[in-house]
Design brief:
By secondary structure, the chain is of the alpha/beta class. It has one domain: 3-Layer(aba) Sandwich (Rossmann fold), CATH 3.40.50. Helix content is about 35%, strand content about 15%. The protein is built from 11 helices and 8 strands. An 8-stranded mixed beta sheet has the order 3-4-2-5-1-6-7-8, sandwiched between helices. Helix 1 packs across helix 11. It starts with 18 loop residues before the first strand and ends with a helix. The N terminus is likely disordered.
Length: about 270
């Protein structure tokens, strides 16, 4: 499978009080939400004040950080539909330095309502503006679709992090996502760069995993993170307990990998 190489990052630094990273891949099951939760926790553990915004109506990032479903709790939907202050919607987590702006199923309705808004692609960017001075990192967990919610996240972000499962079919949607990123750059957010491509569910026992990883490194070069996220039972268990992996099992391979990823990102 052939891919066009990604353009290098621009040399001019982006001017922002925080670093906003959209974590996106329209294919589900590639470790996108797992990465959002555990990268956020690892950055917070490194004393980086971090906000995770759950942009997915499935709200898995919210539940994975211990927020049980509560119909009374206000969410990102209220920022879109009622112009509620995002600061009033933020919830703390058990990990100091990590906050979450939760989602819920009502966000499906917001996606429809946004279509009638003349500035529908900029709603999230405008909502985030007052929060940028409060955080070192803002992570946007996108839904597994190239819909208006994902477009909002890509318009609000400075960089795009793409998790890719090390299996053949997981590669198929990458070109479409990169095409979307180029359209976003042309029309909505000329500053959107590639944070990196993250290899997830890495099983070093299989030839296919190594072949996919090598193909990606051949075509994308240094845009692929050195850190890989292994298949790990403890990492898969952690969300059902509402905990990031560094809280659930700090000694696991999954925890070690996400701490390494956080270090790699902080060095950029």
């Amino acid at each position: 499978m052939r891919f066009a190489p990604l353009p290098a990052k621009s040399e001019a630094p982006l001017i922002s009080l925080s670093r906003t990273i959209a974590i996106a891949n329209q294919k589900g099951g590639v470790g996108k939400t797992t990465t959002a939760i555990n990268l956020g926790a690892s950055l917070a553990a490194a004393e980086m004040k971090t906000l995770l915004i759950d942009c997915d109506p499935q709200a898995n990032a919210s539940s994975g950080l211990g927020l049980r479903k509560d119909p009374r709790r206000r969410s990102l939907y209220h920022a879109f539909a009622e112009q509620a202050s995002p600061a009033s919607l933020i919830q703390p987590t058990e990990l100091p330095g990590l906050d979450v702006l939760p989602s819920d199923r009502n966000l499906v309705g917001a996606a429809v309502e946004l279509l009638a808004n003349d500035r529908r692609e900029f709603c999230l960017k405008e909502a985030l503006q007052p929060l940028r001075e409060r955080y070192d990192f803002i992570l946007l967990d996108c839904p597994p679709a190239l819909d208006i919610l994902t477009v909002n996240a890509l318009t609000a972000a400075e960089t795009l992090l793409i998790p890719i499962q090390c299996e053949y079919f997981a590669l198929e949607g990458v070109s479409e996502l990169l095409d979307t990123r180029l359209r976003i750059r042309r029309n909505l957010n000329p500053q959107l760069e590639i944070e990196g491509i993250l290899l997830t569910m890495f099983d070093d026992r299989t030839n296919l995993t190594h072949q996919v990883a090598q193909d990606l490194r051949d075509y994308f070069g240094s845009q692929v993170f050195k850190t890989v996220i292994p298949r790990n039972v403890r990492l898969a268990e952690a969300p059902s307990h509402g905990k990031p992996i560094i809280v659930y099992d700090i000694r696991s391979r999954g925890a070690e990998s996400y701490l390494e990823l956080a270090k790699e990102i902080m060095k950029k």
